[in-house]
Amino acid sequence: MKAYAKTDIGARRQTNQDFVFCSMQPVGSLPNLFIVADGMGGHKAGDLASRYTVEGFLETVRNSKADNPITIIEEAVDKSNLLLIQKSKESIDYEGMGTTLVVATIIGKSIYIANVGDSRLYLVNNEIQQITRDHSLVEEMISLGEIDRKSARTHEKKNIITRAVGVDTEVVADFFEVDYVDGDIILMCSDGLSNMIEDEDMKNIINQGNDLPEITDNLITEANKNGGRDNISVILVQPDYEEVKEC
């Protein structure tokens, strides 16, 4: 297995409110762990929300007595949500802060995934497949047939998410379990990437690259070239790589 993670401020933002975590070493009972969080809130709140949530998530995973990966991740989502709500009460600057979260761990040939919000996980090989489903207003509009997916990319309400960590005392994550095949690359990203590059173009950039750091830089460069309207975070994982090459 090998992996690489990077976050970039983008072309227009003054601060980076994304936070990434990438470990191919065990975290608690999980053999590896990958996280992308995209914070929301004021100047001080968004970057705190993403970092604080990931830190709380990791602490819960390390202390969990469970052995089922979904149970461990669900406990960590719930706990980090409550911790962030408590943190938001400490200062008026923190009111209304929250964050998206997409999490993955790989066990054998299976990938266990959870997401809240509109940060995504894809599987990429000869095709690109979005595994997670956005918790966003435009995704609901697509489901209702009110708009098509192409127009959703530029819709004026594109950035309105319907679920986030730190907003309500109960947060519901979606969980997925998928198997990978040799040659697959896992792409996890914030919407600063997926809003700036078409899925097919992301697939082509990944398949044309020579190594994960180069591919990551190429993805971020393309997102910034296309406007870079938001912070851009990318984690790439090649699970079938024979050696262990750290993030």
CATH architect. name: 4-Layer Sandwich
The chain-level mean pLDDT equals 93
**Could you name the CATH homologous superfamily?**
PPM-type phosphatase domain
Query: Low-confidence segments, ≥5 residues, pLDDT <50?
Result: none
CA radius of gyration is 17 Å
Strand content: 25-35%
What's the story with the biggest beta sheet?
6 strands, antiparallel
Principal-axes shape call:
globular
Number of strands: 11
Q: Which structural category fits the helices and strands?
A: alpha+beta
The separation of the N and C termini measures: 10 Å
Helical amount:
25-40%
Oligomer: single chain
Query: How many domains, in number, for the residues?
Result: 1
Fold and architecture overview:
- The chain contains seven helices and eleven strands.
- A hairpin with a 2-residue loop joins strand 5 and strand 6 (110-116).
- The chain is α+β, with helices and mostly antiparallel strands.
- The protein starts with a strand and ends in a 9-residue tail after the last strand.
- It is globular, with a radius of gyration of 17 Å.
- The chain has helices spanning 45-63, 69-88, 137-143, 149-152, 191-194, 199-208, 212-225; strands spanning 2-8, 18-23, 33-40, 98-99, 101-107, 110-116, 120-124, 128-130, 174-179, 185-189, 232-238.
- Helix 1 (45-63) crosses helix 2 and helix 6 runs antiparallel to helix 7 (212-225).
- Strands 2, 3, 4, 5, 6 and 9 form a six-stranded antiparallel beta sheet that branches.
- The longest helix has 20 residues, at 69-88.
- It has one domain (2-129, 162-238): Phosphatase 2c, domain 1.
